[in-house]
Amino acid sequence: MTAVLTYLAGKAFRLATLLAAVCALSFWLMHISPIDPVQAYVGAEMMLVSPEQRAEIAERWGLDEPPIERFALWAASLAQGDLGTSLIYRQPVSTVIAERFAASLVLMGTAWTLSGVFGFALGVIAARYRGTLTDRAIRWYCLTLASTPAFWLGLLLLMVFAVWLGLLPMGLASPAGVRSDDVTWLDRLRHLVLPALTLSVIGVANIALHTRQKLIDVLASDYAVFARARGESETGIIIRHGMRNVALPALTVQFASFSELFGGAVLAEQVFSYPGLGQATVQAGLQGDVPLLLGAVIFSTLFVFAGNLIADVLYRAVDPRTRAEAPA
Amino acid sequence: MSDLLDIVDVSISFTRYEAGLRRRTLRVINGLSVDVRRGEVLAVIGSSGSGKSLLAHAVLGILPGNAHLSGSMRFVGEELTPERQRRARGREIALVPQAVTSLDPLMRVGPQVRWGAPVNGNGSQAEAQRRVFARYGLTPEVERSFPAQLSGGMTRRVLLSTAVVSGASLIIADEPTPGLDPEALAETMRHLRELADENKGVMLITHDIETAVTIADRIAVFYAGTAVEVCPAHDFLPDGAALRHPYTRALWRALPRNGLAPVAGAQPSYDDLPDGCAFRARCDRATSACAATRPALRSVRGGMVACIHAA
Amino acid sequence: MNGTAAEAHPRPVRMPRVRRALGGRQRTLLAAALAALALGAIVGAGTLLPDARLTTDLGARNQAPSLANPFGTDWLGRDMLTRTARGLTTSLALGAAAASVSALLALALGAAAATLGKMADAAVSWLIDLFLSVPHLVLLILISFAFGGGARGVAIGIVLTHWPTLARVIRAEILALRGSEFVRVSRRLGTSNLRIATGHMLPHVFPQFLVGLVLLFPHAILHEAAVTFLGFGLPPHEPAVGIILAEAMMHLSTGRWWLAVFPGLALLAMVRAFDVLGDRVRALLDPRTAHE
């Protein structure tokens, strides 16, 4: 029990220092950026502000103070959950992020699951037929995918399925001009297919190559050799021993890939005008919406941290070797 | 002729591609003949690199893909074809592996052992496994453990259990003793002897001559991929005078109780096995005739020896 | 490919045979040479193709690929092959320069972590964690934004985001070397730290560094293209490949497929060529795989 508490305390401390550093780094970057700090803090109401009010705001927010004190002020409001107001969406940043992330989560979740399942399957097949043409083809395919720009793949898919074949919509998350109450789940699904496909096709490479290598190691292990000597078939060994020993590392890799997943989502959402957090991040950057940009940075850091934490916890909780000291 | 396993003139070579067009063949086992009978323990001894473990894999038919095997292997009078090996593996011929890491680390021990038990009228696989565990003093707690939770000695007993639970008539124990304390070592030897006394054949692959001699009926001495002498175990016992091959005698003299006289020189590597007798470079009795042809095993004083000088 | 393979081998043999007969080392060299050749061709085309092919030619607008314009022409009649080659050369130059600085940063931080004691090690580890904790693309957007976009923003972004993995490799390599027998022996023999660093460390760490550098290129180029595509990188008048693809996206519904297909394919080929090159150079330098 104490071990668990120590572990959690350690992770919490790590997260705290990490967030503090990310905030400090982001704040510093905004400080050196050519953007007007008053605009950055006031956000949406900027157009309504007169020069007198401007000076008043600068004083109230301490904008004439040295950077360190301004950072302290900003951090204090962050700590109370106040991320400011988005300039573009004219809503609290937390509201924008919550709405946008819900859409992104559908996209990323679908792609994450699909790429995990297909990548794992491809990796298992490649390892089962290692050294053969099948293996070489899968490896070549994965290495090529790893070099493929996600946004270009999105463009190709758009061109084929939306422009030429006309099977799927060009973009957005629902048909344009339709009230959100009238949008059917089939509409949403049709809009989800291409961005999710783009994201999962790219995501397959990493997990497939990792699974292949792990399974090849397992098949060369002492216990696989012994299983062969005991008369287990190659397929039987993969099912009985391979899956058991490869599934957990694969799942861990998949959880640890949240950073790439988020980056891929930024590109896919931009290509397909999919209204997720990634697209909002790009818009915030392009239109100088500093509160939203900072919010997106902090939130994506939390997202990546969550993935790594789950990966770590999974490994500790499931692997009996890490529980060796306490017999079952 | 043996009633269990009969290996006649078996050679195993590996093909490797090297830089450029050169293809190299490494001959690892070279014209080897040996047999195992029901009810006996045959100890196969030899230094590392003499091809002992490879022979076990050859009998089971689990050599790597680039291995080439020639010669004849017969099991209970039938030719050991790949198909016959597939049927025999784990059912009629069982391996007790050398590595303690031979159990799946993520699978509980009981189910792993159980898997190899035959499905027949003698109760369930689980019952068969529990009977064997009881026989070797393994508690029900061991059954529910993961391999990492077992001690080295327990792991060795579990590995032996996998062979016993299968009901195989031939058990190949490939170095089953490293890391055991003297007591556990003696116990393992006793278990192997018991199996032979139950009319199974046991091939004990080891480099520990002194331990092997205590339970073996016969000893096969390997050198550079071939059996240079196959003799009754008691030939090793009093003064070694009955031993036939110069290498066997040198091994005997190298035993701790006989003064640890090391064998001069080194075993030739697979890359350049000489023609003729492989031991001749280290042999004080070597003559030009030894270089001409590789000596075949022949009967001398109730044993077999591959040396033209033995009498 | 046939010709090159036959030249690499003394006797002209048919291609499939050659492939099988060539040793692993020759095949590795061949792959590395082909990758280098492909990269040379891109840069060569980018610098040698005349400017005239980039001028607006309204009489030759929106032409599908042909012999005269293998990649077709755009809505202003500009040759897409020339634009692509130029764009890739720009991306390559920017990506390679930024990746090189990033690699030097990795070398400095990795070496500092391994040699300057526990505090420095912990500090570098913490920095590595920090830079891996934000998605690369988000960090790139943030940094590009902070530096007002343009080549400078992208370059600084790439420099700051690409060093962590290589720094880890170099740190581990130096730590392994410090613990190795021959370094400890020379230290006991009184060899100065500087001589150990230049005489023992550098020759061992340099190949690792070189491979790490080459393998940073493809990442840097892909990220540069992505950031530029999103609108944070190079301005439209510097036609990096990300700009070309962003423009192609606007003309997507017209069915002029060549605007997007070829530049993207060329980018993919370039990134893959760097990957192959780095991978093969590593195989050549690594004693464990050198004999395969």
Task: Tell me about this structure.
The complex is a heterotrimer of chains A (328), B (311) and C (292). Chain A is mainly α and 328 residues long. Helices cover 74% and strands 0% of the residues of chain A. Chain A is built from 13 helices and no strands. In chain A, helix 5 crosses helix 8, helix 6 packs across helix 8 (185-219) and helix 12 (277-286) runs antiparallel to helix 13. Residues 324-328 of chain A have low confidence and may be disordered. Chain B is an alpha/beta fold and 311 residues long. The radius of gyration of chain B is 20 Å and the shape is globular. Helix content of chain C is 74%, strand content 0%. In chain C, helix 4 packs antiparallel against helix 5. Chain C is built from 12 helices and no strands. With 292 residues, chain C is an all-alpha fold.
Short description:
The complex is a heterotrimer of chains A (328), B (311) and C (292). Chain B has 311 residues and is α/β, with parallel strands linked by helices. Chain B has helices at 52-60, 82-88, 109-114, 125-135, 140-143, 152-165, 182-197, 209-215, 246-254, 288-292; strands at residues 5-17, 23-36, 41-45, 67-75, 78-79, 93-96, 170-174, 201-206, 218-223, 226-232, 298-300, 303-305.
